[in-house]
Design goal:
Low-confidence stretches: 1-12
Shape: elongated
Structural class: mainly alpha
Radius of gyration: 22 Å
Strand content: under 5%
Helix content: 55-70%
Largest sheet: none
């Protein structure tokens, strides 16, 4: 991952929230069933945070995504960016061949269909990010 994307070092980021001046004076106890505990543990591990941080992010960020969700969206968009780069390269090679020989290569149709499917995936990802 590049340093300039704002997510450099996310693997080593704190699982706990950063300290605040004066500390946190209020404490809340939440009792959960064994099934709920298993779900919380799985979600916390998935998002690489502690259970208290998971609960606070979920409760206080109900109208927007949490940092964990933003990181996941960033990773999905990063993967799509790499994919569209390879698709664009393939289409460029097909166009170069067609321009130099006057013939469209036989693999043009599948490559164009693949490009369309990638564009649809990007559209879906952007719609998901917009909350539609």
């Amino acid at each position: 991952m590049s340093e300039g994307n704002g997510f450099a070092g996310w693997k080593s980021r704190r699982r706990r929230r950063a300290n605040v001046d004066g500390g946190r004076m209020h404490r809340h106890e939440v009792k959960v069933s064994p099934e709920e505990e298993a779900q919380l543990l799985a979600l916390a591990e998935k998002h690489r945070v502690t259970i208290p941080r998971l609960l606070i992010e979920a409760a206080l960020n109900e109208d927007s995504e949490s940092p964990s969700e933003r990181r996941d969206q960033f990773m999905q968009l990063s993967n799509l960016q790499r994919l569209i780069g390879s698709v664009a390269n393939n289409i460029n090679q097909i166009a170069r061949h067609a321009n130099s020989t006057g013939e469209v290569p036989p693999d043009a149709a599948p490559a164009i269909a693949h490009a369309k499917s990638v564009i649809i995936r990007i559209d879906r990802q952007l719609a998901d990010m917009a909350g539609r």
